[in-house]
Design brief:
The protein is of the alpha+beta class. The protein folds into 3 domains: about 100 residues, Orthogonal Bundle (Butyryl-Coa Dehydrogenase, subunit A, domain 1); about 110 residues, Butyryl-CoA Dehydrogenase, subunit A, domain 2, CATH 2.40.110; about 160 residues, Butyryl-CoA Dehydrogenase, subunit A, domain 3 (Up-down Bundle), CATH 1.20.140.10. The chain contains 15 helices and 8 strands. A 4-stranded mixed sheet has the order 1-4-5-8. The protein has a 4-stranded antiparallel sheet with strand order 2-3-7-6. A hairpin with a 2-residue loop joins strand 6 and strand 7. Helix 9 packs antiparallel against helix 11, helix 9 runs parallel beside helix 12 and helix 12 runs antiparallel to helix 13. The protein is globular. It starts with 11 loop residues before the first helix and ends in a 6-residue tail after the last helix.
Amino acid sequence: MIMNDNASSASPSHSELAQRIRAFVNERVIPHESTLARDDDAALTLQSALAAEARSLGLWGLYYPAALGGKVARLSDYLPIAEQEGRSEFGPEIFGGRAALDVRMLSLHGSDAIASRFLHPLAAGDAVSAYGMSEPDSIGSIPATINLQAQREGDGWRLNGRKWFISRARRADFITVVARTLADAPPQQALSMLVMPTDAPGFSILRDLDILGRRNGQHELLFDNVRLPQDHLLGELHGGMALMKQRLRLGRSINAAHWIGLAQRCLDLLGERVNSERGRLARLPDKQLIRRLAFITHQGIVSARGQLQLAAARLDAGLDGDMEVNMAKIAASHALNQAADNAIQVFGAEGLCDATPLSNIFRYARATRILDGADEVLINTVGRRILDGYGASAEQPAPQDALAGRETTLS
């Protein structure tokens, strides 16, 4: 059963975990955000220390498989916890939530060699992972344009090509890369995933890439005759498209929960400012347009939360949740963008500077409309499925479950 209130959808133990995460974010993470936002060794040292503290408190990797220390099995139960992790832009990294997707993908599809060399250190917090799909000479939403070549060579692979806008690559211990393993074939048969250690000869970082004037760990990568053993193949040979779809479903859902948590924090900041001494001096609580900003911000968050719960319920049941996940991703991204913008409007000029966290949140929020699939791509995909469902029967529209169960592509 899907509850309307996200906090009541979890069992008491899950609610307790969410409350403990919230307290840790408030007391240990938020006070240090200005340091964590810096692109330097001090930020990484502090982040590592906070992650170690989270592990010592049993708050690390809560959505990992149970065999790897996870405490939450169902995505639906993880959502309220993920929201609290996401109340700070840096929370998902500190609690291991950012790595949950890689942990689950490697656990499901990795060889014994991948498990021992990459998965177990990642789950223990001793390694950092990255994912490489986007390329400078391809279209991110069209897998057929991926150009990174992985050619068979003896009992292994040789990689040549480039990737860009790859998060955490400079400090990653390994990268899961999407590569073309058949030169002339449709993407359903041509792509594979391989796991590459970043100390492999021939791999290098060409440059750091700014996001709206701020460095936040995005990089362009070069693969120059990088050689990998055969057992570094993830899943089935030429099965990359299926893995990409599975990864996108779960990754978009986890990210959406983190974004909703950050949107809720923006609303909290907005409400606190309105009711502060300065806010009352400006009579903000009495202004109808300020009340409207609060209403539409809250409405966006609640709507996104409900859509994400529907998506998680389908994924937990083993059903095709592509349509619901895509809608939840868009809803969460829009809720975050709206919440950050409205909060800045209430704070005025102060919201534009580093006196509040809102300027950094606003930069991050804008990127979410492109990350994990641009809005236009997902809207096009969902809209096509809706209309295809009606077109299946000219006399009677297809029911919602039939629409949600139809197959879709990434493009």
